[in-house]
Specification:
Number of strands: 6
Distance between the termini: 7 Å
Strand content: 15-25%
Number of helices: 9
Largest sheet: 4 strands, mixed
Number of domains: 3
Order of helices and strands: EEEHEEHHEHHHHHH
Helix content: 55-70%
Structural class: alpha+beta
Mean pLDDT: 83
Radius of gyration: 33 Å
Shape: elongated
Low-confidence stretches: none
């Protein structure tokens, strides 16, 4: 589902902004953008966002806006020392030639860090980031819930229509035995002049065979059961994601619908089956976006 949320937190001379946006996607695809000096926050940010999002292409942007004089650039000395040691190792042990250029050193992520001169500023900034992220997630989730409620109502309506169509198929299917008997009888009468004698027993066997072959009772029972379960998932959410469960139910609904259409050789049932398939396809398109 789509959604957008933004959260902010203020520190003396610093403003922290976290923005989260998402678009529809069948799977969870998370992309993070933040200043390189906060690369260590990535696992925690991913964990907190993916705890709320199971589907969707999500982008999170973390911005730090600092006032004049509130921050200063500093060299990440442990990282610089480690790079220098690694470079010397390459020269001594592997015979690699060349020296370290300033531009190459500065391009290493995290080599230059910005930090407030005040003691404990990093801790306060981390708390501000957590606060801004919490605000962004709350707004983001509220927006997605609003969209999800509209989507839920639409899907419930479509599933109710599919149940009505299945009921119409069931009512029509009750007439099939008599329709088969009458159709076969009429065909036999059409060829009666070419047949010396018609065996009533054989006639009854053929009628029973055709009726059994066109019986769709079991398929309709399963179809109605799947539709009822899908509507229950939407009408009474259990707090767990329903998108993938509905996707599975739609596969089963499609399978039973296809079987009914192939077994019941009746024009009206075929028309109802086509309507069922059309509604199922619309539901499937929406379910791909549902979490």
């Amino acid at each position: 589902m789509t959604g957008y949320g933004e959260g902010t937190a203020e520190l003396p001379g610093t403003r922290v902004t976290v923005a989260i946006r998402s678009v529809n996607n069948r799977f969870a695809d998370l992309r993070l953008r933040f200043p390189p000096e906060w690369i260590g926050l990535e696992p925690e940010l991913r964990r907190r966002i993916l705890a709320r999002v199971r589907r969707g292409r999500v982008e999170m942007v973390l911005n730090l806006e600092r006032g004049n004089g509130s921050a200063q650039a500093r060299l990440n000395r442990p990282l610089a020392d480690a790079v220098a040691v690694a470079a010397q190792c390459l020269r001594d042990e592997y015979g690699v030639t060349g020296g370290l250029e300033l531009s190459a050193m500065l391009s290493i992520p995290g080599m230059i860090q910005s930090a407030s001169a005040a003691p404990g500023a990093d801790v306060a900034l981390r708390e501000a980031i957590d606060l801004a992220l919490a605000g962004a997630l709350a707004a983001f989730e509220s927006e997605r819930l609003r969209e999800g409620e509209g989507l839920r109502r639409d899907l419930v309506g479509r599933l109710e229509r599919m149940e009505g169509l299945a009921g119409s198929v069931e009512a029509r299917a009750r007439l099939l035995p008599e329709m088969v008997r009458r159709r076969l009888t009429e065909r036999v009468r059409a060829f009666a002049e070419q047949v010396a004698e018609i065996d009533p027993g054989r006639m009854a066997q053929e009628i029973a065979f055709l009726v059994e072959r066109s019986d769709v009772t079991e398929e309709l029972v399963r179809l109605c059961g799947h539709l009822c379960q899908a509507r229950t998932l939407l009408a009474h959410p259990d707090g767990e994601p329903v998108g993938k469960r509905l996707d599975f139910l739609l596969q089963e609904i499609g399978r039973e619908t296809n079987t009914v259409g192939s077994k019941a050789s009746d024009l009206e049932i075929s028309r109802l089956v086509l309507e069922l398939k059309g509604e199922a396809e619309k539901v499937r398109e929406q379910v791909q976006n549902l979490e």
